[in-house]
Each structure stands twice: as C-alpha cells, then as structure tokens.
Fold each of these.
Amino acid sequence: MSSRLNYGKTFLLGFGFFGVSVIWGVYNAFVPIFLSEKFDVAPALIGFFMTLDNIAALFIQPPVGAWSDRLRTPLGRRIPFIIIGAPLTALAFGLIPIASIIPLFVACTSTTLLSAALWRTPVVALMPDITPSAFRSQANGIINFMGGIGSIIALQTGGMLYKMSPNFPFWMGSALVLLAALVVYLFIEEPKEYEQAERQPGLLESLREVFADAEKSGLRLLLAIFFWFVGYSAVETFFTLYAKNRLGLDVGDGATLLSVLPLFFVLSAIPAGFLGSRIGRRVTIAIGLIMLIIMLILVYITPAEALLTGIAPLPLVGIPLVEGGARMLTLAGVLLIFGGIGWAFVNINSLPMVVDLTGAARIGTFTGLYYLFSTLSAIAGPNLNGWAVQLASNNYNVIMIISPVFMAIALWLMLGVRRGEARVEG
C-alpha cells in the first residue's frame, strides 16, 4: 500500500459509490409513484415497501462484509461481489418500469434490493483496502462527493428523463451502474497480500468483541452512529410535511428547500475529510454534531414567517416567495446550508473511524458493523419520529427538537471515544 493518497484511484473507486447512489436516487424518487399510480397501492403499504431496502441491507450487508474478508480469489476478495452483483442489479432495475403486474414488479424490485445489498459493503470496503489509514477521511470525502454527484444526477437528470418516458430514468441508472462496475473492475487493483489473523472472527463474534471491550470506544462509536442517523432521519423523512404544515409551502418547494442540505453536504465532503485528517476525526465529528444541534434548535424556535425571510437570489435550489417571483435563498435555507456542512463533518469521518478500530484483515467485517448500526437507525428512525409527530397532534415542528436530542446523545457518546483516529503506518 502506498504511503500517500492516490487521488486518481480514489476518484475512480468513487464510481462504485456513484453507481449505488444513482440507483437509490431513482428508486426512492419514482418507485413510490409507480406503486401509487400504476398499482393503486395504499400509502401505508407504500411506506412499508420503501423500508424493504433497509431490511434487505440489514440482513445482507454486514455478513457479506465479513464474508468478503475471508474470500480469496484471483480477482481479489471484493471485486467478485461487484462483478456478480452489479450486472444483476442493472438487469433487475431496468425491468422495474416495464413490469405490468404487481408480482413481476415486486420480483424486479426485490432482486434489485438483494443484489445491490450484495455488493455495496465490498465496494465501500475497497476504500480502506487501498488507502493508508492517515488518508481515509480524505478518501471517504472524495467517494461521498462522487456519491453525491450520483444522487444529483438521479434527481435532476432523472426528473427530466421521466417526463420523456417513465422507463428512461431506470435505464439510465442501469447503464451507469454497469459503467461504474466496469470502471472499478478495470482500474482498481486490490492488494495482493492480506493481513491474515490466525483465525478470522465472523460478524457476530466481532460484535461481541466490541461489546466486551473494556475500553468501550468501539461500542460508543457504533451507538453514536445509530443515534445521529436516527436524528438525521427525522429531518430527512418528514421535512416536506414540516414545510407544508408549518411553513405553508407546497410539497415541491419543500423538497427544493431541503435540497440545499445534501447539496452543501456534497460541496463539503472533500473539505470535511481534510479537516478530519488535520484536527482529528473525533473533534471534526463533534464540531459537526454541535453545528447540527444549533441549526435544528434555531429552526425550532424561529417563527415560520421569519424562516421564510428572503436573503439573496439563488437559482435552482432557492424557492419563490411569491407566485412567479425569483427563487430566493431564505433564512431556513441558510440554516440548512450549515446543516449540510455539519452533516459532512460527521458522516465523512465516521466510516474511517470504524475501520481504524481494527486491522486490515477485518475491514469488511467492521464496514458491515457500520452498516448494521446505520441501517438499524434507518428502520427505527422514521417509526420513532413518526410516533412522536402523531403524539404531538401532528405538530411537525416537534421533529426539530427531537432530532437535536438524538444528536446530543451521539455527541455525548463521541466524547468518550478514544480510538479510531488515523494510524501512522510504517
């Protein structure tokens, strides 16, 4: 392994995450429309259907990560999952819009979910495989930047293609997944030698080790990941309803207002990695959590009319404050910009911390543990937060005070983490 970051290789590896992001962006945007308009599925069932990807990920991604650690083939231990899983994903995904009956539609979506879960952990584990510990935050920033570009393409280009034909966004996604897998296969060379433990512990044994560790850094870090994702999912899941019910915006403008957060996450991804390597990952994550807590509390206490105060013209992601008016960056948008930057500080540095809790022999296993806790939160978060909104008599502003509570728990947990920083490798 080189003693410096290979930017070209890292950007090329980012194509793997780019492909995954395009698929999920198109899937989340348009599958609910097919379920509702094509098959007349009830909203509650649509909500359950859209959690199936997280349920599939929960049972497949963690054990696949551990399996990839033990696998030995001429192609490496991660690449086989990609060259088998990605074409299956592309084929099933491309068939989704032309499925004319609900059993065939469910078969196509289920195959997409299962095959995508098969190769996501291995493609992410490739990053620490080929990157020295000291540069993993920067590399993760680059890979998330590429993933963010994939999400933007899925929503912006996918939206335009959908107007031409509902088939086109899915076929675009299939083509880009095949291209992404081909780029990774052709240009990313796995290490030929692997650090080998005397006996390779599996996922459950590794999880027991984390719980039994007297120092508890690993457990605190994984629990912090769970809690901050629960807090983030409150905003992500219910923001359009919050914007409609509290701010009086239509759904389209609510989604546009929220879009500044992922946009500035993407723009901040690479700087967040550099900051993590400069001042430490734990400190950078703590700063990000404090930014998110302050942002959410300010959104909670600021009157709705003040949140819609126009600050400056902003094409594309601004919202019109009067019908037919120019798109404006509002005070709410400014706060969400800080939220996107804070979320980048947190998210970009967390996976490198998790994989640096262990050695090279178990990178896939610990990548799986990362996905285990983040996926559990993706299942629990919307349900917990939905119940909270319902108990508050459908007052959607309550999510802006619940979310910082979860973020504060995560911050408290992070303050006790003592391991996971970049290691000096000789």
Amino acid sequence: MKKKNSEPPPPAAPGLFGDSLPAPAPARKNGLLAFSYSKMSLYEECPLKYKFKYIDKIKEEPKFYFAFGNSIHTALEFLYSVKAPPFPALEELLEAFRLDWNKKSYLEKGYRTPQRADADYQKGLVMLKAYYEQNRAGFKPPFLVEYSTDVEVDGLLVRTISDRIEYLGGGEIEIIDYKTGKDVKRQPSQLYMYQKINELDPRLKEKIAETYGKRVSSVRVRQMQYYHVPTLKPYVFERADDKEIGAFWDRVLGVAENIRGIRFDPTPGEQACAWCDYKSLCPHFFGGHPHPAEQLSSTTENIEALVDRYGRLKERMDELQAQLDEVGGSIARSAKDGAQYAGSQYTARVKKNSKWEFRDREAVIKVLNDFELYQKALTLTLTGISGVLDSADISEDARKKLLEQAVKKTAVDIKIVKKEGLI
C-alpha cells in the first residue's frame, strides 16, 4: 500500500495557535512508523485526536478509570512476578495495590473528589480479594508477566504489552489480558494484534529456551483471553485463522498509510466528542458543537453530484477568501485605528489590536508540556495563546520561554455595515 508519487502533497493542517502550518510528520524510529493497537484504535476513533496526542504530544486530562485499572494491573503483576512458590499472601497483594494507589493524589488520578477516589480504592480491595480467593488454588508461576516487545513488520515498529503469557508446551502459548472496566462483549481485534506480533517475535523463542531449556522452531498462539477482573469472568478466544488475521492486518496497514500520508481530518461524533479533551482545539467544534456552516442540509442528490457541487463551492470560497484577504490587507495598511470610513454602499469601522503569533508548533507545545500549561492551552481558541502569557499565575521562566517563540503583530478588525436603503 505505497503512496503513489503522482499524488499531490497533503494539505496543511490547521495551526495550533493561528495560521495554517505544515502538519508535522509522524514519529518514526529507524525509518519505521511506531505503532500499537491503542494508536490504531485512537486513529480510527478520530484521526485529529490521534494527531493531537501522538504527534503534537498534547497531554490529555488524567482519567480515573485508567488510574484504577493501572493500580489493579500493578497489583496483579506483583502477585505473579514469582519464579517459584510460595506466592505473595493476600495481605501482601493488597499492600502492593495500596502503595501504587497512593503514589498520586486523587486529582492526579483524575478524580474530582477524594470521596470518589476512596470509594474506588475500596472497590479495588474487594475486587482483588475476590480474585485471590477465586484463583489461589491454581496459582503457578507464569511464563511471562507484563511482557513488552517491539517487532518490525511491513515498515512498522509494532509494540505489544501482554499482561500475562502462559507456556502450553510445544512452542504454544496463551495470552491473558486483564480488563477492569465495564463488562461488555469485546471484539477480539486487540488479540489479533497480540497473535500477529507475538508469533513474529524472535525474542519469545529465546525466552522459551531460557525458561524451559527447550528450543522451538516457532511460537504459536493457541488461545487468548480477556479476563474481566470485577466479575471474575474469562472470555476465551481460540486462535484466529489466516483469513481473520489477514483482514485485520489489511486494516492495520490502511491506518498506517493514512498516518504516513498525514491525513488527520476529524470524524465528529456526539458521544466521542462530548468526552474529548481536545474539542476546544478542534477546528470543527466550539465547545463541542459543530460550526453552523458544517451542518449538512437534506438533499436527494447522489454522492457523485454532491462531490462535484462541493468542489465547485470550495473553489469559489477559496477564490473569494483570497480576494477578501488582499483587500482587507490594503485597508489595514491605509486605515487608522478606531477610524470609520464610508464608501458608496458600505461603512467600515477599523480597529487594530496587538496579537501574538507562534510559528514553531513543536517548540511551543514543548514549553506547554514542560511547565504543565497544557490545561490552560486547551481552554483557548485556535487564534491565540496570549491568555497564557497574560495569566498572573504563569511563572517568569515559562513566560520567557513562550516569548522566545512569539512574534507580536497587529490584528485588524473590520466591521462592515451596509448603508440603509441599499439592497
């Protein structure tokens, strides 16, 4: 799925703080595109959200359900990280959960109140006690725990992290993935990724030889399971066949091709956008609501006719915008601030203001992240970040770093009113 050389270059992406800027290239390592199932899922949810998170590297607000799930995973990692019996006692498991839970405050974990955080902590204790009692009779040292690997395949560097891997003999393995959220029926797409990558991973053969003293020619995933910790339910999936894996991998390569092609148009959706941390930065949304111009009118035209109509309107809009910018620039250069000018048909009042412009996207984002200012930035419009600079609680060091990337220019606001009696 290589991109043809005859294709036009991708359009410029909306600038984070003003005018359009060239979209930055996706992160690569040794010419390979860094990839994972979570990255693919986010791109499929919304390409622009992927860009904000993985390319612009704008931090999201902390999510309490991630914090809760991470602490449960950490406790279970502690439980199974033994080379031989005995396993940790229940009290030790709960202490491991407590220690990890207390590493961050309730706000850092994404809770709004300490009471809600305490309630989830108690829920976690109950959950782990039930898990321990349910599984203690079958405890045995696993093959691998929290196994992370990076595999090069088809121009990608794909990372998977398996919560637990059991060795079944003969080069066959079982992959277990813990889930702590809602007990919903899951599609096995993530497990397809595990199967594909783990069977290509040369390190797994070495791990089997090191652990069990037997060399195998290949590794084969016999089965995979989601283990829903809150309900103690395992959802077992048998090995996917070549057709399933092939269809899934075509989907992976399609997403990767779009990322390489710098295709990051937003895909608005009521539910997804309502909870998105980046909606105030999205050019299609103001406070989570679509621009009026983006609303689709009802029509009976077929899709081909609509495409042509859209193209003609876009060309006209671009031509008019170019003319508008040119004439507006001429007015700005000739007019005085606060002055009013009357033509034969319209009257214009011109107001000039100073504004900041930030041209180096990466440098500004780095400053925002370094000084934990991204939350303030997310509340701003796309046209400026002067509110951060003018904030009373910004440190002088942060202000200095932002000013190094800033250029002050004059913004001109032209208010046009049509004269009465003219149509």
Amino acid sequence: MASVGSIQLGSIEQFCKAAELGSFTATAEFFGVTPAAVSRSISRLEQRLGVRLFSRTTRSVKVTNEGELFWKECQLALEQIAEAERAVTGAQIVPSGLLRISVSAAYGTHRLLPLMPRFTEAYPQIEIELSISDKIIDFVEEGFDLAIRLGIQRDSRLVAYKLEDAFLGVYATPEYLLKKGTPRTLNDLEAHDCIQYVSPNTGRPMIWLFQGEKGEEIEYPIRSRMRVLNDALGCIAWVNAGGGLYQTYNFAAADAVKRGDLVEVLHDHGGCARPFSILYPQNRHLSAKVRAFVDFLRSTLSVLPAQ
C-alpha cells in the first residue's frame, strides 16, 4: 500500500462524492470534469490501495464493503482537514454536516427526542440521523459519530462523559393494582406479574434495583414468566396495557404518571439510579458538530430536574 502522501487529495474527494451520489457522471458534473477523468482517478486510487472500492456495471456503480469502510474514514479525514484550515485562517467554524447518533431505546424515546427540537433549532446546518436501539455498536463499521449508553464505560478506545443518573421506579396501572393488590414490601413481588427486560448485549434479564432500610443498594432477582427480548419499550407498552409491574426510569413513566395511567409503587425502596454516558472514539478529532451536540446535551441536562 502506498504512503499517505502519495494519495492525492483530489482523488479522495472525487471518491467520496462518487460514493455519496452513486454515479461517476454526477460526480463529474459536480467537479466540472469528464466521467472518464473521475473513473481514471478512482481506478488509480484502487490500484494504490490494492482493493476494489466500487463494483461497476454498465448502468451504475456501487460501493463495495471495503469502499464503504474507506468512505467513512475519508469523510472524517476531509472534515478534519477542513476544520484545520478554518482554525489556521481564523475562520469561524459553524457546526454542520451529518451527525449520526446511536442511543438506547428508552433513553432515546423518552429523554433525548423531547430535547432534539431545541438542538435542531439552534444548529440548522446540522443533519441528524438517530439510531434507536439497545445493541452495542461498532463506531467504525457502522459509521456513528457518538452514542449514548447505559453505564460508565471502561473502554480505553472511547471518550465517555457521564450525562446523568436516571432514577428508577416500579410502575403499574391502577386497574392492575385494583385486581392484584399493591405491593408494600419486596417479598410481595413474588405474588405479582413482573415484566422482565432481557438485554440484547448480555442475553440476561436486567436486575431490579432497590434501596434497603439503611440506604444500601439491593439487587433483587425477579422470577417471572413474562419477558421481553431486546426492546425495553415493549416492556413499557406491556405495563401500560395493564400486564403487570415493571421497573423503569422515572423519565420513561413520567407522562403516564401525570395522566394517571400509571402508579409508582414501593416508594420506600426507591431512590436507586443507573448512569447514562455519551461516548465517541478516542482517536477521532472532535468535530464542531459533535462538540456542539455534546455541549448542548450536558448543559441542557444539567438544568433539568433529576428524574
């Protein structure tokens, strides 16, 4: 493989645009050159790298798997070069471009999405693409700029900022409690329908957390015939339908509680929380769009009431 210096920046730019547009002809029109010139430029790039970046037919071109990976990394590199030029020339860096965010289901739906209109209004030049899923992502393979996940990350490859502690409560509908009774102690849970969430990353049910009489944290093993795989929002929907008890974050149940659709139980054992963090790769330059989002989220959450 050739050294970085031998790869012309123009070829990289043409490659990225061709990957974006899926057409050498459209790329040629964008740069004001001929389609043949674009094709030759990308062919030289493929020769230097020793891989095929596009699969070509008479009608279209399509990025290969290797090309997809190279495209994502080149986009980051071009963005860093552009920001370096702005920094040297003193030009104001306006956050812009596509920002790809991965966020877990409950946090994304009930905590992040209600805040997004403020962010998009403040930064009209940033495009947002949200992936709402509890599955752990690969930043490089999947091309995400950042992620929001449960827990404090110990991965040295990632930069992690704790966003907040999300407090937990056990909830049920008034109709369910009228039929089954209201639990007063942890032992009362044995007589109730408890809905369990099974994490896609561990394959195990999430442990319910409670506070003991002395304020100590208790991990309570729930035994249940009712389980939801991979989708925490499914558990919340089941509870809302009167299916049983479920421990979730207060912010996920807040609106239903205000409407009277859900009731929190076991208050004497409440007060436990789980932390949420925002993550991005350690070895990447923090772009203006990522920095804007991180700063926005940390500052916004810092003034919201704890939930």
